Amino acid sequence: MIHNLGSTSSLLNQYIAELRDEVIQGDSLRFRRNMERLGEIFAYEISKTLAWEQKEVVTSLGVASCEVLKQQPVIATILRAGLPFHQGLLNAFDKAENAFVSAFRKHRKDGRFDVKVEYISSPSILDKVLIISDPMLATGASMVLSYKALISKGRPSHTHIVSILGCNQGVDYVRKNMPDDNYTLWLGAVDDELTAKAYIVPGLGDAGDLAFGSKL
What is the Cα–Cα distance from 89 to 48, expressed in whole angstroms? Predict the structure, then answer.
């Protein structure tokens, strides 16, 4: 199942517009904060699909029957661009366990590249809900490889893949190459074009550089 939250008018679209705006992008603090706020919005929407249970809560005046999450998810992100987005998800799911994957593009002399997973830190995700985020779903290769690395820690009961921006090619790649069918894809917007260097157009540029500064 694919959810494109940008297809419905909401504050999510305002925050994405600011992420794309090359003038506003000059403020890296605002860029990070907008990614964080988007993470909170995605977390709220995902929470509607999770399992809940009743719990009696003692107040100063009596007892209230309240709904609480039956199980906390595991929140995973792909370093480094995903950190502010991850923080937004964690702000909402504040009791969640966390996982981190270091995936990077290893460029060849012919201009193409391979995606490599260098590092993973994760709790067991066996029979848990996994939320894996990356701000940009470009080729889709990083997401699929990161998921394959994470399931070495156990098969989740369900996986939510979350990206702020995606492109049609990346969405198609995920649909064709995910080793499991038990997942939901959440996007804020879907762009049509992917350049030869695998940048989404119009996209927003390099999310990691805009959030944390350019790299060598």
Answer: 14
Tokens of 201: 């157009």
Alpha carbons 209 and 141: distance in angstroms, whole number: 20
CA atoms of 149 and 119, how far apart (whole Å): 9
Grouping H, G, I as helix, E, B as strand and the rest as coil, residue 140 is: coil
The residue ranking higher by pLDDT, 115 or 203, is 203
| Nearest Cα to Cα of residue 65 among 56, 78, 73 | 56
* Alpha carbon distance 57, 79 (integer Å): 38
Q: What residue ranges define each of the domains in the chain, with the CATH number in brackets?
A: 2-212 (3.40.50.2020)
Using one digit for the tens of pLDDT, what is the confidence trace for 28-67? 999 999 999 999 999 999 999 999 999 999 999 999 999 9
pLDDT digits (tens, 9 = 90+) for 163-215: 999 999 999 999 999 998 999 999 999 999 988 778 899 999 999 999 999 87
Residue 76 neighbours by CB distance under 10 Å: 32
Q: Is 203 left (phi over 0), alpha (psi -120 to 50) or beta?
A: left
The helix/strand/coil state of 108 is: coil
| Residue 48 vs residues 45, 68, 70, 159, 178: alpha-carbon distances, Å | 6, 12, 12, 14, 24
Residue 86 near residue 135 (C-beta atoms within 8 A): no
